[in-house]
Amino acid sequence: MGTKQTVSPKQVAGGNAKARAKPKSDTPPPSPAEESLIKSKANGRESKSRESPAEANTLPPQKSLVVAYILWLFGGIFGLHHLYLHRDRHAFIWSCTLGGYMGIGWIGELFLIPEYVRDANEDPRFVKAFVAKLQAFQRPPYSSKRFVGQVMIGHLFGQLFAMAIPQTVVAGLDLSFLHWAIPLFVSLGIWLVGNIGREQGVWWHCLLAAYLAYPARFLIYDETYSLLLTGLVSALTFDGISKQWRRTPPRRGRPVERSLKLTGAILIYCTFWGSFVYFNGTISDEDGGEVPIHEALHNFLASAWWTDLKQALHDTYNYAQHHGWYETWKEVFESMDVDGERNSYKVLGVSATASQAEITAAYRKLSKEYHPDKVKDEALRAEAHQRFIEVQQAYSVLSKIKSNRRRKNKQFQDDDAIVL
Q1: What structural domains and CATH numbers belong to the chain?
Q2: What is the pLDDT, as a whole number, of residue 170?
């Protein structure tokens, strides 16, 4: 006797639901490049959702093409437009080279800014074009523009550090051994340029290549060529091994964090220039000899001119502490003789308390003495003419000042009379 198997209506319904849940799709599967990009974006959205669930799928703040072009026009050589578009590495390079070696790179960006803006805004057109690149190239293709930029910036950083090393003994120390850090700065410049935009790579590859190529300096006695060789080997290593696509936009740091990093990098860069100028820079003296700048600065600080200036500043500060900064500024302003009163008294040869009658008498006397028609000697006539003009100007200045003071005194007296 057999048993009869029965199927409940719920099981039937469940089976039908499963059958309906698995329809066949005619849509082709995504390519490996698209799948990788989708996973990268999904991971980015997951991290964003963990930090701020409300902003998981929101686009970044949109950047204006007009603002980017304005910043490019008025501050492009310092990389202001790159700062606006969150391309901080690019901005630092532009600040160090004044727009890519005296504005050459800055001018070349005239037609690239729209693409930079679309990248910063994650514009669908840019994303579509970027996906097409991912499908066409597994790794970023060779770019002569970027490669030359890597070699140039790597050479600049290495050369700057080499120049910053003191050539003389400092505090009893010979710092010439620091030249072994030159490959580090060469590779840093190459890595920095290589990580701009949607391309990236690790640092240690080009760092190792730079140190392997650096001993060639002992065979190539010209430091320029040895540095160039070091940069070429390091850049080729980065381009052939390290370079990869940056599939997601770089993380956008907070304004304070970005400012601290960029300011610190610029200060370090300027410090190397300062070290070069202070320790290795020279100026020419009267005899044509070269004097190191640090010695010239030491001599200047010990000179009588600097001592007198320092004492004058110290006396001014003490005067301000007792009489106030307003009175101090008033005294400084009067000592500058901006209205020419003191010089006019000196030209006419009268005291500061001279009356208008005394000023007029001195003016008439000097005018007759230095009148060009009174001077017969041709050699002295030009000098007399100049002196005559000075007398005329001095009298005009003092007459105007005296007249204004009389008018103010009269007005003050009239106001007092009205009040009383």
Answers
A1: 60-136 (no CATH), 144-252 (no CATH), 337-417 (1.10.287.110)
A2: 85
